[in-house]
Structure formats: C-alpha cells, structure tokens
Amino acid sequence: MAGDGGSVISSVTVCSSSKFYDLAQRAIDALQAMGLTVYTPRFDYNEEHVVVGEADKFRLTHEFLAKVARSDAVYVIASGGYTGVSVCIEVGYAHALGKAVLCSEQPTEFAVRALVDAVVPVDEISARVRFVGHRRTSTVDLFP
Predict the structure, then answer these.
(1) pTM of the model
(2) Distance in angstroms (rounded) separating the CA atoms of residues 43 and 88
C-alpha cells in the first residue's frame, strides 16, 4: 500500500468542498489519465445547488469515508488554501489510516497542513504523485 511510504499509489480519493467541484473534476481527469483508480465526491449532492439534509449528510459522510479507506491516498482540493469542515475530517481520517495526503495548494488550516505529505497543484499532477509516501514521523518544520 502507498501509505507505507515505499509503495506506489494506485488509487486516490479526491476530497473537495462543493465550492470547487469544477477544479475537482480537472484533478479527477488528470489522475484518471495516469491510470489511477479515482474515488470521487457525489457531484449530485453539490451543496451549491441542492439542500443536503442531516440524514443525507450522515449517509454521505460514511459513504465517503469508506472511499478514503479503500484508497492509497487522498488528493485535497484546497483552492486558496480553503478545505472546509468535511474535508478536514476526511484528511484526519486518511492520515490516521496511514494514507498519503496530497493537496492542490497549501492549506490555510494549520491542523490540516500538519498532515499533508505533498502539495501538487492540479495543473502539475503527473506520474510523480504515484510515489508520494505517507510521513510516519512528525516535525514542526514541515513547510519552512
């Protein structure tokens, strides 16, 4: 598994606020073009266009966390550094499971930033993302 720092990433879950679904789709296209298995948000529940009730949010959260558990890594759309509450939960879950955490931009939330293994802008997604490993140790100087 890629999360061990030595294996190749073959599957990734794209995490994104519904505000950035257009950018998420670009990332999905780039990751799929590399031959990766890509798990995606439920675009049909875009909170920019539909009201998502409590029961739906509960179900969608558990459904999405199962996608994170099946993948080797998560790729976070952090446009302008923004991640949002749900994405913060997804990143923490991925990190706890030993998954690699990649972001499109440096997150502004320091708690999320502490868990990021690599920043790879959407327009720079390339084969190198297959080799980003999960850091098992922590340091205070991750992003000088």
Answers:
(1) 0.85
(2) 19
